[in-house]
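Table 4 source record.
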Amino acid sequence: MTSRREFIRHSALASAAAVATPASTFAILHKDRQPEDILAGHGSHTYKVDKGWARISINANPLSNCHEMVQDSKGRLIMLGDCTMNNILIFDKSGKLLDYWGNSFPGGHGLTLSKEGGDDFLFLTDCGWYQDRTGATKRQAGQVIKTDLTGRLIFAIGHPRTIGVYKDDEYFQPTETAVAPNGDIYVADGYGSDYIIQYNARGQYIRHFGGHHNANPEHNLVNAHGVCVDLRDKDKPTLICTSREENCFKVFTLDGKFIRRIDLPGMYVCRAVPSGEHIYAGICWSKDANGKRIDGDSGFVTILDGANKVISNPGGEAPVYKNGVLQPTLKAANTVFQHGHDVCVDDDQNLYVCQWNANHTPPVKLTRV
């Protein structure tokens, strides 16, 4: 017998398909929509912008902030947001909504796909920040949850204070996870105490590093918003950790030893997303020509090559290097994005850009040209 939940889900999906917003209607509802032929990016990484890609009903599947997206082994695009009517939305590459679930993550923020044997699993990070019914911002303890692709709970990673790792005055507001080839889990405490916490595949604590109190300040992290395992050099896998307030990535060994930093002046960068030889990342804010952060719509996307050199900035100005040093990058004159929070790269090298604080809009598709 079909459960009430499944009946509601399938009815809503049918309704969404019936009333999916066509591109012309989307342009009326969202006046910031760009013309169909607008291009963003530079050189070999130039893209056609499609803000009407996601064919969903805003009534059946409302959105608050679209935080992150991954592609699973079946080619489906899985998005995590912080609207508890549907934390998880699952699309095909045409933008059709295939499924949705989740109503327990008011701070839904980080989404990582883990491939274990022939199965896919998700690590969902709730950062603990949320808005109540009055619109006021509240904070509660963050959490990291491992599920299968249907939302079935596998296990949860609790507050590090419960195992004596954190002091009483250290907050835990995790923002991101990454999974190493051996199954080790790395949790970025980006809105809390800025540590990267390493666990084994069963969620048992190994170590933590980063934070604010290292003898060498280069080893500190300031807003450790993202973490990823970089396998571009398969013989020397590394961790790329975001230090967003410092406008850079910091690279560590898998056991937490600092290697180097990758400066991205003017860019408040989110997590690094390796794909092929490149790294992609959303820029949540950028600075103006005087070096002051623009808190309004100043985000874009940045793309680095295999040598960690910026080669394209969709939505931003072209990268400029002087004597091998990247100069501060400004947003483009014509705004494409409000805030870049995450980039998903599909198997055709198209991009899907999730945005924070973007007027309840779905991810933007960038089709490579």
